[in-house]
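[job 0412] stage=complex_fold ligand=adenosine monophosphate status=START
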Amino acid sequence: MQTIDNFNFAGKKAFVRVDFNVPLDENLKITDDTRMRAALPTIKKIIADGGMVIIGSHLGRPKKGPEKKFSLQNIVEHLSELLGQPVKFVDDCIGEKVEAAVAELQPKDVLVLENLRFYAEEEGKPRGLAEDATDEEKAAAKKAVKESQKEFTKKLASLADAYVNDAFGTAHRAHASTALIADYFAPENKMFGYLMEKEVKAVEKVMKDINRPFTAIMGGSKVSSKIDIIENLLNKVDNLIITGGMTYTFTKATGGNIGNSLCEEDKLDLALDILKKAKEKGVNLVLAVDAKIADAFSNDANTKFCPVSQIPDGWEGLDIGPESEKIFADVIKNSKTLLWNGPTGVFEFENFTHGSRTVGEAIAEATKAGAFSLVGGGDSVACVNKFGLADKVSYVSTGGGALLEAIEGKVLPGIKAIQG
Ligand code: AMP
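[job 0412] stage=complex_fold status=DONE, emitting C-alpha coordinates
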Protein backbone atom coordinates (compact mmCIF):
# COMPACT_ATOMS: atom_id res chain seq x y z
CA MET A 1 0.00 0.00 0.00
CA GLN A 2 1.28 3.46 -0.88
CA THR A 3 2.10 5.76 2.05
CA ILE A 4 2.29 9.52 2.11
CA ASP A 5 5.84 9.37 3.43
CA ASN A 6 6.98 7.31 0.44
CA PHE A 7 5.29 9.48 -2.16
CA ASN A 8 7.10 12.38 -3.76
CA PHE A 9 4.57 15.06 -4.67
CA ALA A 10 7.06 17.26 -6.57
CA GLY A 11 5.26 18.76 -9.56
CA LYS A 12 2.16 16.65 -8.84
CA LYS A 13 -1.37 17.75 -8.13
CA ALA A 14 -2.91 16.05 -5.10
CA PHE A 15 -6.62 16.00 -4.31
CA VAL A 16 -6.67 15.97 -0.52
CA ARG A 17 -9.99 15.08 1.10
CA VAL A 18 -9.94 16.68 4.52
CA ASP A 19 -12.57 17.11 7.20
CA PHE A 20 -12.82 20.89 7.56
CA ASN A 21 -16.34 20.59 8.89
CA VAL A 22 -15.55 23.08 11.67
CA PRO A 23 -18.11 24.86 13.87
CA LEU A 24 -18.79 28.49 12.89
CA ASP A 25 -20.47 31.19 14.97
CA GLU A 26 -23.19 33.53 13.70
CA ASN A 27 -20.52 35.81 12.20
CA LEU A 28 -19.12 32.80 10.31
CA LYS A 29 -15.99 32.77 12.46
CA ILE A 30 -14.43 29.42 13.32
CA THR A 31 -14.98 28.52 16.98
CA ASP A 32 -12.86 25.35 17.07
CA ASP A 33 -10.16 24.66 14.47
CA THR A 34 -9.04 21.25 15.79
CA ARG A 35 -10.02 19.51 12.56
CA MET A 36 -8.08 21.99 10.45
CA ARG A 37 -4.96 21.66 12.58
CA ALA A 38 -5.25 17.88 12.38
CA ALA A 39 -4.82 17.99 8.59
CA LEU A 40 -1.85 20.38 8.54
CA PRO A 41 0.95 17.75 8.56
CA THR A 42 -0.44 16.21 5.36
CA ILE A 43 -0.85 19.54 3.59
CA LYS A 44 2.59 20.71 4.70
CA LYS A 45 4.27 17.53 3.45
CA ILE A 46 2.80 18.02 -0.04
CA ILE A 47 3.88 21.67 -0.06
CA ALA A 48 7.38 20.76 1.17
CA ASP A 49 7.72 18.23 -1.67
CA GLY A 50 6.81 20.95 -4.18
CA GLY A 51 3.39 19.52 -4.94
CA MET A 52 0.10 21.31 -5.56
CA VAL A 53 -2.64 20.86 -2.97
CA ILE A 54 -6.28 20.75 -4.03
CA ILE A 55 -8.42 20.65 -0.90
CA GLY A 56 -11.87 19.10 -0.90
CA SER A 57 -14.17 19.05 2.13
CA HIS A 58 -17.73 19.36 3.24
CA LEU A 59 -18.95 21.93 5.76
CA GLY A 60 -22.24 21.49 7.57
CA ARG A 61 -25.22 19.84 6.00
CA PRO A 62 -26.33 21.85 2.99
CA LYS A 63 -29.48 20.37 1.59
CA LYS A 64 -30.26 22.73 -1.27
CA GLY A 65 -27.06 23.72 -3.05
CA PRO A 66 -24.83 26.73 -2.30
CA GLU A 67 -25.40 28.73 0.90
CA LYS A 68 -22.99 31.29 2.33
CA LYS A 69 -22.97 29.80 5.81
CA PHE A 70 -21.78 26.48 4.40
CA SER A 71 -19.17 27.94 2.02
CA LEU A 72 -15.59 26.71 2.37
CA GLN A 73 -14.64 30.34 1.68
CA ASN A 74 -15.29 30.81 5.41
CA ILE A 75 -12.19 28.81 6.32
CA VAL A 76 -9.73 30.05 3.68
CA GLU A 77 -8.30 32.96 5.64
CA HIS A 78 -7.71 30.84 8.71
CA LEU A 79 -6.08 28.07 6.69
CA SER A 80 -3.78 30.67 5.20
CA GLU A 81 -2.81 31.81 8.72
CA LEU A 82 -2.20 28.24 9.84
CA LEU A 83 -0.03 27.47 6.81
CA GLY A 84 1.70 30.85 6.73
CA GLN A 85 1.10 31.27 3.01
CA PRO A 86 -1.67 32.47 0.70
CA VAL A 87 -4.46 30.01 -0.04
CA LYS A 88 -6.55 30.18 -3.21
CA PHE A 89 -10.27 29.50 -3.39
CA VAL A 90 -12.62 28.61 -6.22
CA ASP A 91 -16.38 28.81 -5.70
CA ASP A 92 -17.17 25.44 -7.21
CA CYS A 93 -15.69 21.98 -6.96
CA ILE A 94 -16.09 20.66 -10.52
CA GLY A 95 -16.41 22.23 -13.96
CA GLU A 96 -14.53 24.67 -16.18
CA LYS A 97 -13.91 27.33 -13.55
CA VAL A 98 -12.29 24.74 -11.31
CA GLU A 99 -10.28 23.19 -14.12
CA ALA A 100 -8.92 26.64 -15.01
CA ALA A 101 -7.95 27.34 -11.37
CA VAL A 102 -6.23 23.96 -11.17
CA ALA A 103 -4.36 24.54 -14.45
CA GLU A 104 -2.89 27.74 -13.03
CA LEU A 105 -1.50 26.05 -9.92
CA GLN A 106 2.23 26.30 -9.32
CA PRO A 107 4.28 23.99 -7.07
CA LYS A 108 3.54 24.68 -3.35
CA ASP A 109 0.18 26.33 -4.14
CA VAL A 110 -2.89 25.46 -2.10
CA LEU A 111 -6.36 25.68 -3.62
CA VAL A 112 -9.54 25.15 -1.62
CA LEU A 113 -12.56 23.94 -3.57
CA GLU A 114 -16.12 24.92 -2.66
CA ASN A 115 -18.16 22.66 -0.37
CA LEU A 116 -18.46 19.25 -2.03
CA ARG A 117 -21.91 18.78 -0.55
CA PHE A 118 -23.31 21.67 -2.55
CA TYR A 119 -23.79 18.84 -5.04
CA ALA A 120 -26.19 16.06 -4.08
CA GLU A 121 -23.82 13.77 -5.97
CA GLU A 122 -21.22 13.98 -3.22
CA GLU A 123 -23.43 11.99 -0.85
CA GLY A 124 -25.31 10.29 -3.66
CA LYS A 125 -28.66 11.01 -2.03
CA PRO A 126 -31.54 12.63 -3.93
CA ARG A 127 -32.62 16.11 -2.88
CA GLY A 128 -35.74 18.17 -3.22
CA LEU A 129 -38.13 15.23 -3.39
CA ALA A 130 -41.73 16.17 -2.72
CA GLU A 131 -42.89 15.00 0.68
CA ASP A 132 -45.65 12.95 -0.91
CA ALA A 133 -43.32 11.34 -3.44
CA THR A 134 -44.22 7.74 -4.20
CA ASP A 135 -41.80 4.89 -3.63
CA GLU A 136 -41.31 4.67 -7.39
CA GLU A 137 -40.46 8.37 -7.61
CA LYS A 138 -38.02 7.97 -4.73
CA ALA A 139 -36.37 4.98 -6.38
CA ALA A 140 -36.10 6.82 -9.71
CA ALA A 141 -34.55 9.88 -8.03
CA LYS A 142 -32.09 7.67 -6.20
CA LYS A 143 -31.12 5.93 -9.41
CA ALA A 144 -30.66 9.26 -11.19
CA VAL A 145 -28.38 10.72 -8.53
CA LYS A 146 -26.31 7.53 -8.38
CA GLU A 147 -25.86 7.81 -12.16
CA SER A 148 -24.80 11.46 -12.07
CA GLN A 149 -22.59 10.68 -9.07
CA LYS A 150 -20.29 8.70 -11.38
CA GLU A 151 -19.81 11.72 -13.62
CA PHE A 152 -19.24 13.99 -10.60
CA THR A 153 -16.66 11.61 -9.12
CA LYS A 154 -14.85 11.29 -12.42
CA LYS A 155 -14.64 15.08 -12.77
CA LEU A 156 -13.27 15.46 -9.24
CA ALA A 157 -10.69 12.73 -9.86
CA SER A 158 -9.60 14.28 -13.17
CA LEU A 159 -8.33 17.36 -11.29
CA ALA A 160 -5.39 15.54 -9.72
CA ASP A 161 -2.54 13.06 -10.19
CA ALA A 162 -2.80 11.66 -6.68
CA TYR A 163 -5.57 11.12 -4.10
CA VAL A 164 -4.94 11.58 -0.40
CA ASN A 165 -7.69 10.79 2.09
CA ASP A 166 -7.19 12.53 5.43
CA ALA A 167 -10.84 12.76 6.46
CA PHE A 168 -11.33 10.13 9.15
CA GLY A 169 -14.48 11.91 10.36
CA THR A 170 -16.26 10.86 7.13
CA ALA A 171 -14.48 7.53 6.57
CA HIS A 172 -17.71 5.69 7.41
CA ARG A 173 -19.44 7.26 4.43
CA ALA A 174 -19.20 5.86 0.90
CA HIS A 175 -19.33 9.31 -0.65
CA ALA A 176 -17.82 10.46 -3.95
CA SER A 177 -14.80 12.22 -2.44
CA THR A 178 -14.27 9.90 0.52
CA ALA A 179 -14.39 6.53 -1.22
CA LEU A 180 -15.66 6.30 -4.81
CA ILE A 181 -12.98 8.64 -6.18
CA ALA A 182 -10.23 6.18 -5.19
CA ASP A 183 -11.23 3.91 -8.09
CA TYR A 184 -9.88 6.48 -10.52
CA PHE A 185 -6.34 6.33 -9.15
CA ALA A 186 -3.78 3.56 -9.54
CA PRO A 187 -2.76 1.92 -6.23
CA GLU A 188 0.57 3.78 -6.19
CA ASN A 189 -1.22 7.14 -6.51
CA LYS A 190 -3.71 6.86 -3.63
CA MET A 191 -2.94 6.91 0.05
CA PHE A 192 -4.01 7.94 3.54
CA GLY A 193 -2.89 11.28 4.91
CA TYR A 194 -1.02 11.37 8.23
CA LEU A 195 -4.18 11.86 10.28
CA MET A 196 -5.91 8.89 8.67
CA GLU A 197 -2.79 6.78 9.17
CA LYS A 198 -2.77 7.60 12.89
CA GLU A 199 -6.49 6.93 13.27
CA VAL A 200 -6.30 3.62 11.43
CA LYS A 201 -3.33 2.50 13.55
CA ALA A 202 -5.07 3.52 16.79
CA VAL A 203 -8.19 1.56 15.85
CA GLU A 204 -6.06 -1.47 14.92
CA LYS A 205 -4.43 -1.36 18.33
CA VAL A 206 -7.75 -1.81 20.08
CA MET A 207 -9.30 -4.12 17.49
CA LYS A 208 -6.45 -6.44 16.46
CA ASP A 209 -3.13 -5.81 18.09
CA ILE A 210 -4.41 -6.02 21.68
CA ASN A 211 -2.24 -5.97 24.81
CA ARG A 212 -4.21 -7.45 27.73
CA PRO A 213 -6.02 -6.80 29.97
CA PHE A 214 -8.21 -4.77 27.62
CA THR A 215 -10.82 -2.55 29.26
CA ALA A 216 -13.52 -0.59 27.47
CA ILE A 217 -15.36 2.16 29.28
CA MET A 218 -18.67 2.82 27.57
CA GLY A 219 -20.65 5.72 28.91
CA GLY A 220 -23.21 8.07 27.50
CA SER A 221 -26.94 8.14 27.64
CA LYS A 222 -28.55 5.22 25.88
CA VAL A 223 -28.03 1.48 25.55
CA SER A 224 -29.88 1.56 22.23
CA SER A 225 -27.25 3.78 20.58
CA LYS A 226 -24.33 1.73 21.88
CA ILE A 227 -25.68 -1.80 21.62
CA ASP A 228 -23.79 -2.85 18.46
CA ILE A 229 -20.52 -1.64 19.92
CA ILE A 230 -21.17 -3.31 23.26
CA GLU A 231 -21.96 -6.63 21.56
CA ASN A 232 -18.79 -6.45 19.47
CA LEU A 233 -16.69 -5.47 22.47
CA LEU A 234 -17.97 -8.47 24.44
CA ASN A 235 -15.94 -10.61 22.03
CA LYS A 236 -12.80 -8.58 22.58
CA VAL A 237 -12.44 -7.11 26.04
CA ASP A 238 -11.50 -8.52 29.44
CA ASN A 239 -13.36 -5.78 31.33
CA LEU A 240 -16.34 -3.79 30.15
CA ILE A 241 -17.36 -0.83 32.26
CA ILE A 242 -20.86 0.27 31.32
CA THR A 243 -21.64 3.66 32.80
CA GLY A 244 -23.43 6.98 32.27
CA GLY A 245 -27.17 7.03 31.73
CA MET A 246 -27.06 3.38 30.56
CA THR A 247 -26.41 2.30 34.15
CA TYR A 248 -30.02 2.65 35.24
CA THR A 249 -31.49 0.48 32.52
CA PHE A 250 -29.27 -2.30 33.89
CA THR A 251 -30.15 -1.49 37.50
CA LYS A 252 -33.86 -1.55 36.75
CA ALA A 253 -33.52 -4.78 34.75
CA THR A 254 -32.01 -6.48 37.78
CA GLY A 255 -34.74 -5.25 40.11
CA GLY A 256 -33.28 -2.04 41.56
CA ASN A 257 -35.09 1.22 42.29
CA ILE A 258 -33.87 3.99 40.01
CA GLY A 259 -36.27 6.83 40.88
CA ASN A 260 -36.45 9.27 37.96
CA SER A 261 -33.13 8.18 36.41
CA LEU A 262 -32.80 7.76 32.68
CA CYS A 263 -34.14 4.38 31.63
CA GLU A 264 -35.04 2.68 28.38
CA GLU A 265 -37.99 0.56 29.44
CA ASP A 266 -37.96 -1.36 26.16
CA LYS A 267 -34.30 -2.31 26.62
CA LEU A 268 -34.57 -4.12 29.95
CA ASP A 269 -34.42 -7.57 28.31
CA LEU A 270 -31.49 -6.42 26.22
CA ALA A 271 -29.67 -5.36 29.38
CA LEU A 272 -30.25 -8.81 30.91
CA ASP A 273 -29.05 -10.42 27.71
CA ILE A 274 -25.83 -8.36 27.80
CA LEU A 275 -25.25 -9.44 31.41
CA LYS A 276 -25.78 -13.08 30.42
CA LYS A 277 -23.50 -12.87 27.37
CA ALA A 278 -20.76 -11.20 29.41
CA LYS A 279 -20.91 -14.10 31.88
CA GLU A 280 -20.81 -16.71 29.11
CA LYS A 281 -17.85 -15.04 27.48
CA GLY A 282 -15.97 -14.55 30.73
CA VAL A 283 -16.02 -10.75 30.42
CA ASN A 284 -15.88 -8.84 33.68
CA LEU A 285 -18.83 -6.47 33.24
CA VAL A 286 -18.49 -3.62 35.70
CA LEU A 287 -21.43 -1.42 36.65
CA ALA A 288 -21.65 1.39 39.17
CA VAL A 289 -22.56 0.42 42.74
CA ASP A 290 -23.41 3.93 43.92
CA ALA A 291 -24.68 7.11 42.32
CA LYS A 292 -24.60 10.85 42.82
CA ILE A 293 -28.28 11.62 42.75
CA ALA A 294 -30.12 14.89 42.25
CA ASP A 295 -33.68 16.06 42.91
CA ALA A 296 -33.82 17.73 39.48
CA PHE A 297 -32.00 17.57 36.13
CA SER A 298 -30.00 20.67 36.94
CA ASN A 299 -26.52 21.68 38.05
CA ASP A 300 -28.08 23.47 41.04
CA ALA A 301 -30.22 20.57 42.21
CA ASN A 302 -29.84 19.16 45.73
CA THR A 303 -27.56 16.14 45.66
CA LYS A 304 -26.55 13.13 47.74
CA PHE A 305 -24.93 9.74 47.27
CA CYS A 306 -26.77 6.44 47.52
CA PRO A 307 -26.50 2.80 46.38
CA VAL A 308 -27.34 2.65 42.70
CA SER A 309 -30.24 0.24 43.29
CA GLN A 310 -31.85 2.36 46.03
CA ILE A 311 -32.54 5.68 44.37
CA PRO A 312 -35.57 7.29 46.06
CA ASP A 313 -38.58 8.44 44.07
CA GLY A 314 -38.17 12.02 42.86
CA TRP A 315 -34.38 11.64 42.57
CA GLU A 316 -32.23 10.70 39.59
CA GLY A 317 -28.67 9.47 39.13
CA LEU A 318 -26.60 12.05 37.30
CA ASP A 319 -23.12 10.66 38.01
CA ILE A 320 -21.38 7.73 39.66
CA GLY A 321 -20.56 7.81 43.37
CA PRO A 322 -17.19 7.51 45.17
CA GLU A 323 -17.26 3.72 45.58
CA SER A 324 -17.88 3.23 41.86
CA GLU A 325 -15.11 5.69 41.08
CA LYS A 326 -12.71 3.57 43.09
CA ILE A 327 -13.83 0.31 41.46
CA PHE A 328 -13.60 1.81 37.94
CA ALA A 329 -10.21 3.41 38.61
CA ASP A 330 -8.76 0.11 39.93
CA VAL A 331 -9.88 -1.80 36.85
CA ILE A 332 -8.54 0.94 34.56
CA LYS A 333 -5.18 1.19 36.28
CA ASN A 334 -4.66 -2.57 35.92
CA SER A 335 -5.28 -2.47 32.15
CA LYS A 336 -2.85 -2.47 29.24
CA THR A 337 -5.31 -1.39 26.53
CA LEU A 338 -8.08 1.13 27.14
CA LEU A 339 -10.92 2.44 25.07
CA TRP A 340 -13.09 5.24 26.42
CA ASN A 341 -16.31 6.37 24.84
CA GLY A 342 -18.86 8.39 26.76
CA PRO A 343 -18.96 10.15 30.15
CA THR A 344 -19.95 8.56 33.48
CA GLY A 345 -22.50 11.27 34.10
CA VAL A 346 -23.97 14.56 32.94
CA PHE A 347 -20.51 16.11 32.63
CA GLU A 348 -21.95 19.28 31.07
CA PHE A 349 -23.07 20.17 34.63
CA GLU A 350 -20.02 21.09 36.74
CA ASN A 351 -21.43 19.28 39.79
CA PHE A 352 -21.60 15.97 37.92
CA THR A 353 -18.15 15.86 36.33
CA HIS A 354 -16.32 14.10 39.13
CA GLY A 355 -16.83 10.55 37.89
CA SER A 356 -15.75 11.35 34.33
CA ARG A 357 -12.73 13.24 35.61
CA THR A 358 -11.73 10.28 37.80
CA VAL A 359 -12.04 7.90 34.85
CA GLY A 360 -9.98 10.27 32.65
CA GLU A 361 -7.30 10.60 35.31
CA ALA A 362 -7.12 6.83 35.85
CA ILE A 363 -6.71 6.38 32.08
CA ALA A 364 -3.93 8.98 32.09
CA GLU A 365 -2.21 7.14 34.94
CA ALA A 366 -2.47 3.77 33.19
CA THR A 367 -1.10 5.36 30.01
CA LYS A 368 1.86 6.72 31.95
CA ALA A 369 2.50 3.19 33.19
CA GLY A 370 2.63 1.91 29.59
CA ALA A 371 -0.97 1.17 28.59
CA PHE A 372 -2.33 2.17 25.18
CA SER A 373 -5.42 4.36 25.51
CA LEU A 374 -7.79 5.48 22.80
CA VAL A 375 -10.42 8.10 23.58
CA GLY A 376 -13.07 8.78 21.00
CA GLY A 377 -16.63 9.78 20.32
CA GLY A 378 -17.65 13.41 20.76
CA ASP A 379 -18.39 13.60 24.46
CA SER A 380 -15.34 11.76 25.78
CA VAL A 381 -13.15 13.99 23.64
CA ALA A 382 -14.90 16.99 25.18
CA CYS A 383 -14.20 15.39 28.60
CA VAL A 384 -10.46 14.92 28.11
CA ASN A 385 -10.18 18.44 26.73
CA LYS A 386 -12.18 19.88 29.62
CA PHE A 387 -9.98 18.09 32.18
CA GLY A 388 -6.71 18.93 30.38
CA LEU A 389 -5.94 15.25 29.79
CA ALA A 390 -5.77 15.19 25.98
CA ASP A 391 -1.98 14.87 25.91
CA LYS A 392 -1.94 12.31 28.72
CA VAL A 393 -3.74 9.59 26.78
CA SER A 394 -2.24 7.73 23.83
CA TYR A 395 -4.66 8.90 21.18
CA VAL A 396 -7.71 11.13 20.94
CA SER A 397 -9.68 10.24 17.84
CA THR A 398 -11.14 12.97 15.63
CA GLY A 399 -13.85 10.59 14.45
CA GLY A 400 -17.22 10.34 16.13
CA GLY A 401 -19.46 8.12 14.02
CA ALA A 402 -16.48 6.77 12.06
CA LEU A 403 -14.68 5.62 15.19
CA LEU A 404 -17.78 4.00 16.63
CA GLU A 405 -18.48 2.12 13.39
CA ALA A 406 -14.87 0.93 13.28
CA ILE A 407 -15.19 -0.38 16.83
CA GLU A 408 -18.46 -2.05 15.94
CA GLY A 409 -16.27 -4.08 13.60
CA LYS A 410 -17.55 -2.51 10.38
CA VAL A 411 -15.24 -2.00 7.41
CA LEU A 412 -15.20 1.73 6.74
CA PRO A 413 -15.63 2.60 3.05
CA GLY A 414 -13.02 5.40 3.24
CA ILE A 415 -10.45 2.96 4.58
CA LYS A 416 -11.36 0.10 2.27
CA ALA A 417 -11.11 2.40 -0.77
CA ILE A 418 -7.39 2.84 -0.05
CA GLN A 419 -6.50 -0.46 1.60
CA GLY A 420 -8.48 -2.53 -0.89
P1 AMP B 1 -23.86 9.81 24.16
O1 AMP B 1 -24.13 10.91 23.17
O2 AMP B 1 -24.77 8.63 24.06
O3 AMP B 1 -22.38 9.44 24.22
O4 AMP B 1 -24.22 10.40 25.57
C1 AMP B 1 -23.58 11.52 26.10
C2 AMP B 1 -24.56 12.22 26.96
O5 AMP B 1 -24.98 11.35 27.99
C3 AMP B 1 -24.00 13.45 27.65
O6 AMP B 1 -24.65 14.57 27.12
C4 AMP B 1 -24.35 13.22 29.11
O7 AMP B 1 -24.90 14.37 29.71
C5 AMP B 1 -25.40 12.14 29.05
N1 AMP B 1 -25.47 11.38 30.31
C6 AMP B 1 -24.46 10.73 30.91
N2 AMP B 1 -24.89 10.21 32.09
C7 AMP B 1 -26.18 10.55 32.22
C8 AMP B 1 -27.16 10.32 33.23
N3 AMP B 1 -26.86 9.65 34.33
N4 AMP B 1 -28.39 10.82 33.05
C9 AMP B 1 -28.68 11.52 31.92
N5 AMP B 1 -27.80 11.76 30.93
C10 AMP B 1 -26.56 11.28 31.09
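The pocket of adenosine monophosphate is lined by residues 220-222, 225, 244-245, 262, 317-318, 342-343, 345-346, 348, 377, 379 (CB under 6 Å).
[job 0412] exit 0
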